[in-house]
From TrEMBL:
Entry similarity comment: Belongs to the QueA family.
Gene: queA
EC number: 2.4.99.17
UniProt keyword Nucleotide-binding, yes or no: no
Entry protein name: S-adenosylmethionine:tRNA ribosyltransferase-isomerase
Broad class of enzyme this protein falls into: transferase
Swiss-Prot/TrEMBL keywords: Cytoplasm, Glycosyltransferase, Queuosine biosynthesis, S-adenosyl-L-methionine, Transferase
Organism in which the protein naturally occurs: Stakelama flava
Complex and partners: Monomer.
Molecular function (Gene Ontology), one example: S-adenosylmethionine:tRNA ribosyltransferase-isomerase activity
InterPro entries in alphabetical order: QueA (IPR003699)
């Protein structure tokens, strides 16, 4: 399909720079079959059925944004995928000033050597020393806010909490699974009381999620791989939900992509551990999920393509036009949508 088909105009003032307070006070646009409903995240228990199960990503965002120098040149690095115990693949700002073998000084006694430049301009960074890389990042890194927020304000102490979900446990993501940012303990308790279950998996979200699609046709776009895991107990539990007639509702496109990577043609979800680069566009037949809760996505993005695959491109274009007219807040810190095909 033409990438232009997934374009739309978004007024800049619709981009949220801070999350709603409290988190579950965000608005939620519900597309349930042919119905379009303006609701709030707090209404979620009433929008689902007893026996349904929400699937969360328990990845934890690490402070993966680094600023350093190579000689006189300023170098910015955004880590996006672990490649070894001390090696991370990183997108580099001012990459033209960096060569294989160069050492970058990120301050706070944190150094890394660049090598293996990729076709996308990324480098492998090997961190010096014996301390765990996570400790080094805590010392020298900061939260990797999406560029559409970071370009409008600096990262601050609030983001260290705001940009983590309540489920964050497994460190390794460089972007938050933002749909889950809307959840609070009080909301989970109400879901439990309504006999709506929860389950967790792990997908370490990479910075590639923010990259624009530069190809003219979706067939020519290459996704960046991300590492994920679904253990046997979780796979068995999710299959049992469906066998009983419940629906599996992914919370976030990251949860959805991992479930679809693990599901066979028969719809059975199997244990999974490894990389996935699944790219979902209209025409895809969903196998493992029955619905999706997600935020509002960028035009021409792989994520808008994914929701268009789930609900139909014309349906999503109309829904986004409605959301813009009605003042919904977009992107990572914005409002939610509940998509039930």
């Amino acid at each position: 399909m033409r990438v232009d088909d997934f374009d739309f105009e978004l007024p800049p003032e619709r981009i949220a720079l801070r999350p709603a307070t409290p988190r579950d006070a965000a608005r939620m646009l519900v597309l349930d079959g042919d119905a379009t409903l303006d609701r709030g995240v707090a209404d979620l228990p009433d929008m689902l059925r007893a026996g349904d199960c929400l699937i969360f990503n328990d990845t934890r965002v690490i402070p993966a944004q680094l600023e350093g120098v190579r000689g006189e040149a300023k170098i910015g690095a955004t880590l996006h995928k672990r490649e070894g115990p001390r090696r991370w693949r990183a997108f580099i700002r001012n990459a033209k000033r960096l060569r294989d073998g160069d050492t970058i000084d990120f301050g706070q006694k944190v150094y890394a050597t660049a090598s293996d430049r990729g076709a996308d301009g990324s480098f492998a960074l090997d961190f010096a020393g014996n301390e765990p890389v996570e400790w080094l990042l805590q010392r020298a890194g900061h939260m990797p806010l999406p560029p559409y927020i970071a370009s409008k304000r600096p990262t601050d102490e609030r983001d260290a909490d705001d940009y983590q979900t309540m489920f964050a446990r497994e460190a390794g993501a460089v972007a938050a699974p933002t749909a889950a940012l809307h959840f609070t303990q009080a909301l989970i308790e109400r879901l439990n009381a309504a006999d709506i279950g929860t389950a967790t998996l792990t997908l370490h979200v990479g910075a590639g999620t923010f990259l624009p699609v530069k190809a003219d046709d979706t067939d020519d776009h290459v996704m960046h791989a991300e590492w994920g895991r679904i253990d046997t107990a979780t796979a068995d539990r999710l299959n049992a939900v469906r066998k009983r007639g419940g629906r599996l509702i992914a919370v976030g496109t990251t949860s959805l992509r991992l479930i679809e990577s693990a599901a066979g043609e028969d719809g059975v979800i199997r244990p999974f551990e490894g990389d996935t680069a699944i790219f979902i566009t209209p025409g895809y037949r969903f196998r493992g999920i029955d619905g999706l809760m997600t935020n509002f996505h960028l035009p021409r993005s792989t994520l808008f393509m994914l929701v268009s695959a789930l609900m139909g491109l014309e349906r999503m274009q109309g829904a986004y036009a409605h959301a813009i007219r009605e003042g919904y807040r977009f992107y990572s810190y914005g409002d939610a949508s509940l998509l039930l095909p």
